[in-house]
Write a structure and sequence with these properties.
Blueprint lengths: L1 E8 L4 H7 L8 E6 L6 E6 L3 H13 L3 E7 L4 H5 L2
Antiparallel strand pairs: 1-3, 1-4, 2-3
Length: 83
């Protein structure tokens, strides 16, 4: 399962982000990018199943460092075009 998480860093949390984000949040992490616009960080990550994904999300949202919206990746654009 592939996921994209769009996150907003809470005020005052930038300095703590790299150190205090639970290690469980990095499980399956493919990339993390600082972005400009409505969100501050975009995470691309994978989990072997929904139970694992739920555990990662609980750690991420429980950290009090971020607010987020997570999207499940349905397919690549190329795969979608072949349907």
């Amino acid at each position: 399962m592939k996921f994209i998480t769009l996150a907003k860093v809470r005020p005052g949390a930038w300095a703590r982000l790299a150190h205090d984000l639970p290690a469980a949040c990095y499980e399956g992490m493919k990339s993390a990018h600082v972005v400009y616009g409505q969100y501050d960080v975009v995470f691309e990550w994978e989990a072997k199943d929904l139970e694992t994904a739920n555990k990662i999300m609980k750690h991420m949202t429980g950290s009090d460092l971020l607010t987020s919206e997570t999207l499940v990746v349905a397919s690549t654009l190329k795969e979608f075009g072949q349907i």
